[in-house]
Write a structure and sequence with these properties.
Distance between the termini: 68 Å
Helix content: over 70%
Number of strands: 0
Radius of gyration: 30 Å
Largest sheet: none
Order of helices and strands: HHHHHHHHHHHHHHHHHHHHHHHHHHH
Shape: elongated
Number of domains: 3
Structural class: mainly alpha
């Protein structure tokens, strides 16, 4: 696909025009100052403006700071190693490749925007070192490093000034809109779950979207410290708000499953449930300010309404209703806690209610795939080794451009499951850029004698490319195209174009990415289906870990990570219907992980020598074995049968417990494990025995 149709159909809006105009002004300002200061590489200044371009000032400011820091660390590394190793090219290549691979590994582990610092530190060292080798007779490594740092800083300062002074746009309103929508979607889903008799809606899919949205907002939160909106400096409270919101998702998924269980047996309880639902809605929609002391409060008639429901329900439904009651109670408390935090944030209050145990840590509890990170680092290492080897053996003058582009592309492409589509777009951008560079260099620039004329002839091209930044799939074309043209033109104070150098460099800019893609494809690349299977394995590993984890802060952080993984899973574009079902099941299973922790907690409340305690211990062993098989994508019907038998046995053994409340809580968790983790309809006879025994 040449993207011709999307390009022809593209119609810029008002935001596009404002964004493009601001970016163009910042770029030309950076270029003008670089000319006036007679800096060696003005293209680095104007190129930086395009790389960090963003319509929102907070995101631009944060990326600017990250870019400066990354450039600084990369420059320091280059200055430190180059003088000692430049005369030993193979050792030099090995050290440089190791540095880039290590930086990329760290970047892939840290899924926050701050990962940009580490990635940039990696390939900045490559840019400085390889350019220093090419210009070794005229420029020292120190001057090259200082020059790049100054020119990058110039581009950053120009972008920041223009963004802050010309129609500044803040991220705060976007976060407010997204968060308000997420809360509204959560409440709407709650209402639908309790009122939908036919269960036609795929609530797990809707809730997975909410989880994905919270993950997106979590990424935005990092940038709030860098802007002047009313949420400035509220990164931590917002992250905590999002952590607490994920608990609502777990509550809602569990409620959806309990409602399906209840309706399979009988729907006679529904009229009384409708009355309960009305009382809860009135309670949650109350516009009065929520007081911290009342966070655990419930609707006035909550207990009475549930008693009425139980009166009109069958015996088989009693345990399930107990589970539903617990889920609704937790949802009410969590929802009000989220509302209180959100209200305080809107009032400029950074504090959290004392009753809420913070889930936010210095290292956010997000999904991390260390295996993929290792593959990414290794692929970057191999790419640089291969590209540099070709350069060394061939003695190709512009081979440094090939090796440089290979390193940059290896760092960028490892974040993609499949780099081939990105390579195709990049190659197309390189072809388009070569044509445009030829037109500008030999048809336009010979007639340009003043800076304002330079700005005038570049304006249409730059503004058009920048407008593409905000529109997928065209955004994948916009940045490579504009950067390839800027690099190809190599704009200087005294302009001159060497045809041989131009074509030589163009060949290098194409071969480098091809090498990177080939290596990444062999070492790092996975199809979306492979990625999903790998993440599902991590999901079952996390479930296995939760078996022996007591309910508390550590468990809640663990659950937050699992729900974040579900959000990432739902971003994968897969065709397999079976995998879609498994992703859906993973969300359902995650909602019941809390019951694994509760069973652990209830186990320690039982005397060690009781029949129920022994049955729970055996159940724990069987669950561990079953989850071990699931991590390998295997099923054992015999083991599953034994597991179901043990679940029923635990339910029967609870009849011997004197504490009826404890027995009911065990029966509730057993029901949830059977239904949501094993995806099996419960044995209604066993539930009836349990209820009758108490």
């Amino acid at each position: 696909m040449l993207l011709i149709k999307p390009l022809l159909a593209f119609r810029p809006n008002k935001l596009d025009w404002i964004f493009a105009t601001k970016t163009f002004i910042a770029g030309m300002l950076a270029l003008y100052i670089a000319f006036e200061l007679n800096l060696s590489y003005p293209i680095w200044a104007i190129g930086t403006v395009f790389v960090i371009a963003n319509p929102y000032s907070g995101m631009l400011a944060s990326k600017s700071i990250y870019r400066i820091l990354g450039t600084l660390f990369g420059a320091i590394f280059a200055i430190a190693v180059t003088p000692s190793l430049i005369n030993t090219p193979w050792l030099f290549t090995f050290v440089l490749a190791t540095w880039v691979g290590f930086c990329l590994y760290i970047s892939l582990i840290d899924r926050s925007p701050r990962s940009y610092v580490v990635m940039l530190a990696g390939y900045t060292a490559v840019i400085i070192c390889f350019n220093s080798i090419f210009y070794i007779e005229t420029v020292s490594i120190f001057d090259m490093a200082v020059g790049r740092f100054l020119e990058i800083s110039l581009g950053v300062v120009c972008s920041a000034v223009v963004s802050a002074t010309i129609f500044p746009m803040h991220l705060g309103p976007v976060v407010q809109m997204r968060m308000t929508k997420t809360l509204a979607d959560t409440k709407q889903t709650f209402d639908s779950i309790l009122s939908d008799v036919s269960h036609q809606e795929n609530y797990t899919h809707l809730l997975a979207n909410i989880t994905r949205d919270t993950t997106d907002i979590h990424t935005m939160a990092v940038h709030l410290s860098y802007e002047k909106s009313k949420f400035k400096g509220m990164t931590k409270p917002l992250q905590e708000l999002l952590h607490q919101s994920t608990m609502l998702v777990a509550n809602l998924v569990a409620m959806s499953e309990r409602m399906k269980q209840l309706d399979r047996i009988d729907t006679q309880y529904r009229p009384d449930l409708r009355e309960l639902h009305q009382h809860i809605d009135a309670f949650l929609d109350d516009e009065k300010m929520i007081q911290e002391a009342d966070l655990l409060a419930l609707p006035e008639n909550f207990e009475r309404d549930f008693q009425n429901i139980c009166k009109h329900s069958s015996t088989e439904q009693q345990v399930i209703l107990g589970a539903l009651k617990m889920d609704i109670r937790h949802f009410i408390c969590n929802y009000r806690a989220v509302k209180l935090i959100w209200f305080r944030m809107q009032q400029g209050d950074h504090s959290l209610p004392e009753i809420i145990t913070p889930l936010t840590t210095s290292y956010p509890s997000l999904h991390r795939d260390y295996g993929v990170a290792v593959r990414g680092g290794v692929s970057a290492f191999i790419t640089i080794i291969i590209a540099s080897s070709i350069w060394i053996f061939s003695g190709w003058k512009m081979g440094f451009m090939m090796a440089e582009m290979a390193a940059i592309c290896a760092c960028i492409l490892t974040f993609l499951d499949d780099p081939v589509p990105a390579l195709k777009v990049f190659v197309r951008a390189s072809v388009y850029a070569a044509i445009l560079v030829f037109i500008y260099a030999y048809g336009v620039f010979p007639h340009v004698t003043a800076f304002w004329e330079l700005g005038l002839v570049l304006a249409p091209f730059i503004m058009f490319c920048v407008m593409l930044f905000l529109h997928p799939p065209l955004h994948a074309l916009g940045l490579p195209l504009i950067m390839s043209v800027i690099m190809g033109l190599n704009i200087q104070n005294r302009y001159g174009m060497d045809q041989v150098t131009f074509f030589d460099a163009s060949i290098g800019t194409v071969i480098g990415p091809v090498i990177a893609v080939c290596v990444v494809q062999m070492v790092r690349s996975m199809s979306p289906e492979m990625t999903v299977n790998r993440m599902l394995k991590l999901h079952y590993n996390a479930m296995q870990e939760a078996i022996g984890m007591p309910y508390g802060l550590r468990f809640r952080i663990h659950l937050r990570s699992m729900l974040d993984r579900i959000g990432v899973l739902n971003t994968k574009q897969i065709q397999s219907e079976q995998l879609k079902v498994e992703i859906n099941n993973a969300l359902i299973e995650t909602s019941a992980v809390v019951d694994l922790a509760r069973l652990q907690e209830l186990y320690f409340k039982l005397p060690a020598n009781t029949v129920t305690a022994q049955a729970l211990a055996q159940l724990k062993i069987l669950l561990d074995q079953w989850l071990t098989l699931r991590t390998k994508s295997q099923m054992d019907d015999q083991l599953q049968s034994k597991l179901l038998e043990q679940l029923n046995q635990v339910v029967l053994d609870t009849q011997h417990i004197d504490d009826q409340d404890l027995g009911m809580r065990i029966a509730i968790s057993i029901n949830n494990v059977r239904s949501s983790i094993l995806h099996t309809h419960q044995d209604q006879t066993q539930l009836a025995i349990t209820v009758g025994g108490h």
